[in-house]
Design brief:
The chain contains two helices and twelve strands. By secondary structure, the protein is an alpha+beta fold. Strands 1, 2, 3, 4, 9, 10, 11 and 12 form an eight-stranded antiparallel β-sheet that branches. Strands 7-6-5-8 form a four-stranded antiparallel β-sheet, with no helix packed on it.
Length: 179
């Protein structure tokens, strides 16, 4: 009888391990994604080499909000992803003045994410109207970022957005929620 109960216990452990592995696989492929920051365009918020968890499901129930940090596919290179901050929302007008101010629908945006005034407004030098599923994104390191101001990135379409950066798990001295 002892061998029978040992076998039952082993089967229970095996089933439990299978369930954990399947749940981990599903979570890693459908709920969250790990990404590594490459470059300095999001400093001082994110640094080169930061390892992040991306929430892939929250945007299934709601659209990205202003100031969310999103990961999106770069349309000019398959398998390449960018990470930037949402500044302009669908239907809004965006302009960056010669003084480096960001105007949303003609009103100056008051925000503290950019670490310096924008020197090159690029495509946003003139008022730009976003489409109904387009977002204007900027890196926090405004003068060292390839973002919506430039034609190779441009406005980001909703279907390009993979998810929202939510948690930094490496390096350990900066572990925590991404804000």
């Amino acid at each position: 009888m002892k061998n029978g109960s040992t076998n039952v216990r082993l089967i229970k452990y095996a089933v439990f391990i299978c369930i954990v592995l399947i749940a981990g696989f599903l979570a890693a492929h459908f709920l969250v994604q790990r990404t590594v920051v490459s470059g300095s365009s999001m400093q001082p918020t994110l640094y080169d080499g930061d390892n992040l968890i991306i929430d892939r499901v929250s945007y299934a129930s709601h659209d990205p909000k202003r100031y969310d940090i999103v990961v999106f596919s770069y349309m000019n290179s398959r398998g390449t992803y960018y990470i930037k901050r949402v500044i302009g929302l669908p239907g809004e007008t965006v302009q960056i003045t010669d003084d480096g101010d960001i105007l949303i629908n003609g009103t100056r945006l008051t925000e503290h994410y950019g670490n310096e005034k924008i020197k090159n407004p690029g495509l946003a030098a003139y008022t730009e109207k976003l489409g109904k599923s387009e977002y204007f994104v900027l890196g926090d390191n405004r003068n060292h970022s390839e973002d919506s101001r430039f034609p190779d990135v441009g406005d980001v379409r909703r279907e390009q957005i993979v998810g929202k950066a939510v948690f930094r798990f490496f390096p350990l001295n900066r572990i925590g929620r991404v804000r």
